[in-house]
Amino acid sequence: MEEKSFSILDPFSSVDLGIAESADGVKQWAIANRGIIQPIKNIFNEMIVGIDTTLNAVPPTIMLVLMVLIAWQAAGHRVAILVGVSMFCLGFLAPNAWGLAMTTLAIVVSSVLLCFLIGLPLGVLAGKNDRFEATIRPVLDTMQTIPAFVYLVPVVMLIGIGNVSGVIVTIIFALPPLVRLTSLGIRGVNPSVVEAAKAFGANPRQILLKVELPLATPTILAGVNQTIMLSLSMVVIASMISVKGLGNEVLRAMGRLDAGKALVGGLGIVILAIVLDRITQGMGQSGRERGHRHWWQGGPVGLILRTTGKIK
Q1: Which of 66, 83, 179, 242 is 20 to 30 A from residue 193's alpha carbon, by CA?
Q2: 35: burial class by Cβ within 10 Å (0-12, 13-18, 19+)?
Q3: Which element (helix H / strand E) includes 110?
Q4: In Å, how far are 126, 205, 243, 290 from 293, measured between CA atoms?
Q5: C-alpha torsion angle, residues 276, 98, 118, 194 (rounded to 10)
Q6: Is residue 166 within 8 Å of residue 238, measured between CB atoms?
Q7: Phi-psi region of 201 (alpha: psi -120 to 50; beta: other; left: phi over 0)
Q8: CB atoms within 10 A of CB 218
Q9: pLDDT tens across the length of the chain (312 residues)
Q10: pTM of the model
Q11: C-alpha dihedral over 158, 162, 167, 169, to 10 degrees?
């Protein structure tokens, strides 16, 4: 190519910092060092396959009943009815809709579990350390503002296509709200409550586990709710790198202009989003908001305890 002379009016066209070549060097390094990353990939894959196998091994009727019971315990009988009707409708969208939904649910559950394991400690540390919070804030801003498609290329270079890559991409995309809201919840704890705990001789670990985290739980669960919603929003995008489930059904339907399959996949994702959203929102409610003091005093557990006379 002919080199352009530098012009103050158009300096950008004549200067090449070699960023593209550097990125290509990263690609070559990733290809040469895939053996280092393979053990991590295997751990992730075993977890995803285990959850997927378990969810698909349970008969749909039993899984439907279990989800209704979980919704009843977490959010009350109205949400349980909504969950039951929604999942019943999902099963009748298509003969393979239930299996695809369980695979998608396995991807989402794996992503959210890993987000929780990573995001909760980071959020607690950010809530207690101003310097760490200031350092991690631009990183979280970058993770949230970069288009989701951009994550696909480096992850595929490092790991390859498949469900593991989809989970990692989803973690990067869905992690920031959990970190932010965990930090917000810890910072929102009333200082007088913490001082009272210190006055009674509680050490920092006891204050964190028995005072700060319980009081911050509603805010943390709001972060979990946002993480779940973002994970579901990545389902279709992640299907571009061979992630199975309802998202893959939508992608294939788009390629074939098959409106029926696209509708099945899209409605399935919407139904899963509604179900998971209502359950997690119910988990964020306090016992008083649900009409009882402890979680085990309501729902099916409370019904069993009242029937056996354990509680009145």
Answers
A1: 179
A2: exposed
A3: helix 97-128
A4: 31, 25, 42, 8
A5: 30
A6: yes
A7: left
A8: 16
A9: 455 676 677 777 777 776 666 666 666 776 776 677 778 788 888 888 898 899 889 999 999 999 999 998 888 888 899 999 999 999 888 888 898 899 999 999 999 999 999 999 999 999 999 999 999 999 998 888 888 777 787 787 777 788 888 888 888 889 999 999 999 999 998 889 989 988 888 888 888 888 898 889 889 988 999 999 888 888 888 888 878 888 888 888 888 877 888 888 889 889 999 999 888 888 876 656 666 566 667 778 777 877 877 666
A10: 0.84
A11: 50
Tokens matching residue 254: 């788009």
User: DSSP for 64-107?
Assistant: HHHHHHHHHHHH-HHHHHHHHHHHHHHHTS-TTHHHHHHHHHHH
Q: Rounded to an integer, what distance in angstroms lies between the CA atom of residue 219 and that of residue 184?
A: 7
**Six-digit token pair at 148?**
């989701």
C-beta neighbour count of 41 within 10 angstroms: 17
- Cα–Cα distance, 289 to 221 (Å, whole number): 15
> Do the beta carbons of residue 107 and residue 245 sit within 8 Å?
yes
3-class secondary structure, 2: coil
Beta carbons of 251 and 100 less than 8 angstroms apart: no
